[in-house]
Amino acid sequence: MNMKNRAAVIGTGVCLPERVLTNFDLEKMVNTSDEWITTRTGIHTRRIAGKGEENYRLAVRAGQVALKQAGISAHELSLVIVATFTPHMIMPSCACFVQAEIGADQAFAYDLNAACSGFLYGLDLADAYISRQPDMKILLIGSETLSARVNWEDRNTCILFGDGAGACVLTGGREGQGVVDANLRSDGSLWNLLYMHGPESQNPALVSDDNGGSFIRMAGRDVFRYAVKAMEEAVTTLLERNGVTIDDVCLLIPHQANIRILNKLMDRLTVPREKVYINVDKYGNTSAASIPIALDEASSLGMLRRGDLVLFCSFGGGFTWGSMLMNW
Ligand code: COA
Fold first, then answer.
1. Is the pTM for the entire model greater than 0.70?
2. Which residue has the least CA distance to atom 13 on ligand 1?
3. Residue 2: pLDDT above 50?
């Protein structure tokens, strides 16, 4: 396998909103209980963005921390990508706001929407750019304000999601360092199991039907079933293709959707709990932000050492899903 000029992480960062919403707070909002939420999802708390914590502001703060850790200035960036499906404006992109705020005056910028798989798709994209131009420095951010797109009267969904941003700076790694391979997949035919209309998806002068509001809608059981199967297959195929086994993996960083999905995935892959980074209990499902937040925490805790083989996997609306191997 060609390991030259692949994208390697040189800095990570996180920004989480201040407000913590507990299961006990949710008990006062919808007909639910801490016990139900904890046993069904493993989530105890999630962060909720308030004033001054718009999506792009969370993204800016996470990005600035990652730049500081990488030891580079915004001026050195060639590209800013924000993975999100909850930008505070449809146009311009969240990434353009970030580019301006941080002063990345040499960078081009755009958003990427692959729902909860957005960060993994972004990593693969960054790797493609860097394979072509190894000295390129890319700021990749996953940032979401899902609380703005959740129906707070729907107990099936409102308990699951949280807000936050995670970022990383990428550039061409040294020999044997960086992205090894990715296995990304989509199946648009299953869109209606997990979706969200735009504020006005069609010309209101021409279309009279009411789309019922731009909230996340989900067939929970079906999503659960597909998520486990899809991530298991994406990981197994990737490992086989690269001649490695799950035992060679030092840390699995999965998309943090739900503890029961993760438990099933760990069982099927026969990966021990101590080799999996899990923080869904603290933040809930933060969609495109979940993997970079987990990556930053794992890195801060010293769980990643140079040369470690790291495995990522994700699943989200679309459906979109995939896996990636990276040498730290
Ligand atoms: N509190 C209390 N009861 C609730 C509830 C809540 N927050 N949400 C749903 N229920 C009720 C349902 O109304 C239903 O009641 P009924 O039997 O009287 O109709 C019952 O609990 C079972 O509902 P069901 O949807 O079958 O529960 P479940 O065991 O499948 O758990 C999820 C629901 C959403 C937790 C689960 O399906 C799941 O995790 N799905 C994946 C979601 C996900 O991760 N999406 C994002 C992927 S990126």
1. yes
2. 156
3. no
